[in-house]
Write a structure and sequence with these properties.
By secondary structure, this protein is mainly alpha-helical. Helix content is 53%, strand content 8%. The N and C termini lie close together (10 Å). The mean pLDDT is 93.
Length: 72
């Protein structure tokens, strides 16, 4: 089973916006609370437009938002 994670985005967000909270993130992206929680808690599946909106909102590339975790 393939596993994906939003860890690259979360690390980037905390590093570049240390004073912002999850609520700020939700407002900036205009995500619903459910979609924001999916990003922060790695709850999949998510639609591809969620990834695109993260890239667009924060001027990031896909690899800075999501990564694949290989099976062990």
């Amino acid at each position: 089973m393939m596993a994906l994670t939003f860890e690259p985005f979360r690390v980037w967000f905390v590093k570049h916006h240390p004073t912002r909270r999850k609520m700020d993130f939700q407002k900036e992206t205009q995500f619903s609370p459910q979609t924001a929680a999916k990003v922060w808690e790695d709850r999949f599946p998510v639609r591809s437009d969620v990834i695109d909106r993260l890239c667009e909102t924060y001027d990031l590339e896909v690899h800075e938002v999501i990564k694949r975790i290989p099976n062990t």
